């Protein structure tokens, strides 16, 4: 069973600039970039105009390693110390659920593990040590 752990950088509206910087500084190769505007619309949560051009998710390759990025959503400021999170990627929804359940013990769920437009099971949880994890399941919904 495959399990991958990737650093995930939460930026304050400058993720595109950071990616360009790491392209030059670390010879990073962009693999994927999606803005909030490209996400499916949710009528319950209309997309604010200032969010549309921000990075919802991006990934670069640095050597043999991946580095993920997103801009924080407007109204959710970046707090020094929580800018770096960790993304755990699996290919199995059951394994994702096990990991999510284990990490949420004495922690705090910020997004329940659920099907999204980009994953059959994705969620965010901060463990009891204050470390925030994105649990991402690869594959079709």
CATH-level-2 architecture of the largest domain? 2-Layer Sandwich
Could you tell me the CATH topology label of the largest domain: Signal recognition particle alu RNA binding heterodimer, srp9/1
Q: Mean of the pLDDT scores?
A: 91
Shape summary: globular
The N- and C-terminal alpha carbons lie at a distance of: 19 Å
- Helix/strand class: alpha+beta
Low-confidence stretches: none
Tally of extended strands?
8
Number of domains: 2
Percent helix range: 10-25%
- Side by side, the strands of the main sheet go 2-3-4-1-5-8-7-6
In oligomeric terms, what are we looking at? single chain
Largest sheet: 8 strands, mixed
Would you give an account of this structure?
It is a single chain. An eight-stranded mixed β-sheet has the order 2-3-4-1-5-8-7-6, with helices on one face. The protein has two helices and eight strands. The chain folds into two domains: about 80 residues, 2-Layer Sandwich (Signal recognition particle alu RNA binding heterodimer, srp9/1), CATH 3.30.720; about 50 residues, Signal recognition particle alu RNA binding heterodimer, srp9/1, CATH 3.30.720.110. It is α+β, with helices and mostly antiparallel strands and about 140 residues long.
